[in-house]
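To whoever is on call:

I kicked off a structure prediction for a single chain this morning and the downstream step that reads the tokens threw a length-mismatch warning. I double-checked the sequence; it's 187 residues and nothing unusual in it as far as I can see. Pasting both halves so you can look.
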Amino acid sequence: MTNMDLEGLKSYLSSRNVPLDSWGKGSAKTPEHLLKEINEGETVLVERGNEVLRQVKVASIKVLYEKDGEVYVLAEDRQEFNDGRVRKRTKPKGSLSEKFKSYEEPNVAAKRAIREELGITSDVKLVKSAEVEEVEESQSFPGLKTLYNLHRYNAELTDDQYNPAGYVEEQEDKKTYFVWKNPDKNE
């Protein structure tokens, strides 16, 4: 399902018993957000048995920095939406993630994530660690499960790429804040 309009998407989801009444409230995104993902080739709606799933291919990147024997891991702290909503997310296996465009290779999406979300334009040492498939309830789109095709990477930053204050990604509708944690010190 690609290039549909908003009313067509809402009608399709409603006919598959996806509750839209909580979308756009709290930490949930709107139907317009899902439509944009579909029309930009980041998401495909698929049917498995009696349910519809949002299928996305994702590069999940654990960003690391080592200094004086200490290893720091970048973590998403929060997203602040322009309408005042704040969403905390935990990504236990990655620092950041990026949905592939329909034409992208996994490593290209991973490099794009680092560039777009952290503003790092120089080459980052990137090592693929795993490829897995997971189905989860969607925090972004309640009532619509997401099938993730995950391509996991580790990214090691150099001294020049490391920002001790963390990073902020600014998007049209929100800002995402990333901070450094030291897992060995439970920070």
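Update from on-call: the warning came from a stale cache, not from the record. Cleared it. Sanity check on the structure: The mean pLDDT is 91.
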